[in-house]
Amino acid sequence: MLPSIPASNIVTVNPAVIGTGGDALDLNTVVLSDNSVYPINQYASAADVGAVYGYNSKEYQFAQCYFDGYVGSTIKPATLFIARYNQTDIGARLIGASVKSLQLNELQAIKGDLTLTIDGTVITATIDLSKAKSFSDAAVKIKEALTNDVVFDTQLQAFIISSPSAGAGSAISFASGTAAEALCLTENTGAIADNATKADSPDSVMERVSGYTLNYAVITTIGDAFTQDVLKALAKWNSKQNSRYWFVYYAQEPTALIANNTNCFASWLKENAISGTTAIYGTLEQAGLACGYAASINFSERNGRSTMEFKRQSGIAASVTALKDATALESNGYAYYGAWATANERFIFFRNTRVSGDFAWVDTYLNQVYFNAQLQLAFMNMLISYKAIPYNEEGIAIHRAAAQDPINEMLNFGGIQRGVNLSEAQKSQINYEAGFDAARQIETAGYCLLINKASAQVRGQRESLPLKLWYADGGSVHTVNLASIAVQ
User: Fold this and answer.
1) Which of 77, 118, 232, 346 has the most CB atoms lying inside 10 A of its own CB?
2) What is the residue extent of each domain of the chain?
3) pLDDT of residue 351
4) pLDDT digits (tens, 9 = 90+) for 103-139
5) What is the side-by-side strand order in the sheet with 335-341?
6) Are 64 and 46 in contact (CB under 8 A)?
7) pLDDT at residue 470 is higher than 80
8) What residue spans of 386-474 are helical by DSSP H?
9) Is the pTM of this model over 0.85?
10) Dihedral-angle region of residue 315 (phi above 0 means left; psi in -120 to 50 means alpha; beta otherwise)
11) How many other C-beta atoms lie within 10 A of the C-beta of residue 272?
């Protein structure tokens, strides 16, 4: 081609793309454990949990039930988070990545420098493992060189360097140097600098979790550290999170089996107006199923709405087999995993799957967690996608369009139901707040999105348009009562 001026001098095409709207919230579970190796870590399977905690651990036992979901689910849980809950102050630790692929002769070939900072002091040592007889022996030699505690964890297949102090003054850095690289003690090789050293409270442990991920909706516990006082503190913390998380409490309290007993955990929830917690009379496995149920809800499935009631998993035994116990548990507000029988068939599943607070039922509560997260995501994408959004009819239309995709998703899923008859009290309250017959629209369309124009003061402060969304949850049938009448 002959010499020419680039056409971009006249016509410039700037590529762009309209995104799909970001990633939805997954209803993953965070397990708080007093036995957690790491301050917090993510696992994709029960096998991954077993590899870290051992195959006889409670964490593995829970993970097996969690990742199996419930019978009939179209998706299974994909992620589990386990976070440590410190009962007391502990020492900082540098946890190396796994060196299980390293052979002994390769270990013996490691020779070089290793530098790290422990409790504010820089420590540099020359490491020579040529005479190491085993990985544990190598840890002893590294300990002698650093004059700090070093062990080889056979479960993790990793070296761990520990601070001699505990609590707020205890701190450790990643290591550097040729020996540190070979021993997988650097940040780049996958080591973890564990500086979560202070005794935990609900606020501190959940702050650590949220600093790692927000892609979870369920919280539960494993371990002896979780006394009734600690569990109540966690439930109180959860109750103040604007219905964002579901706390799963489980135990086999003898007091729960006494009808209308005010001296049990579920009654304490009611007395103290705690919201967002489900008290399960049951075992670790049943708690794993409950959490796995949440992570198995397929919000993209048509009519995929799933009540926790009647959910089951093969291999999990019932905790309740007597009507007297079931009646007592229901009077106190407990969910339970029971066994029922017809003339020639036995059924085992969850029953009375309530959540404390106004939402009443677990499925309604979890649906709103997801729906509200989707609405938040939709409006965030709206704000970053438009150059500016005016305070007029066009701006109102933009807001309405942003909310429509999450609304349509919930209509498809069954989290919003059309044709639900509202009570006269509900109609009166809704219409009073809306200023028009919004109740009729909710009954026919399943929802009503009200967007009013902003005042001059609101506009001047660049604040939100007045927005309000009502939707009909619709509920789910949990009991059948049939009058069977023979006519002669």
Assistant:
1) 77
2) 29-86+201-351, 93-194
3) 98
4) 999 999 999 999 999 999 999 999 999 999 999 999 9
5) 40-43, 80-84, 29-33, 218-222, 246-251, 277-281, 335-341, 346-351
6) yes
7) yes
8) 393-413, 424-434, 438-445, 456-460
9) yes
10) left
11) 12
pLDDT one-digit tens code per residue, 75-103: 999 999 999 999 999 999 999 999 999 99
**Above pLDDT 90, what percent of the chain?**
94
- Per DSSP, helices labelled H in 89-201 are 104-108, 135-146, 178-182
Please give the Cα distance from 114 to 123 (Å, whole number).
8
Summary mean pLDDT of the chain: 95
Burial of 255 (0-12, 13-18, 19+ CB in 10 A): middle
* Residue 462: CB atoms within 10 Å: 8
Task: Give the model's pLDDT for residue 3.
Answer: 82
Structure token digits, residue 21: 């709207």
Closest CA to 319 of 382, 256, 265, 410: 256
The CA angle 145-149-155, to the nearest 5 degrees, is: 115
Total residue length of the chain: 488
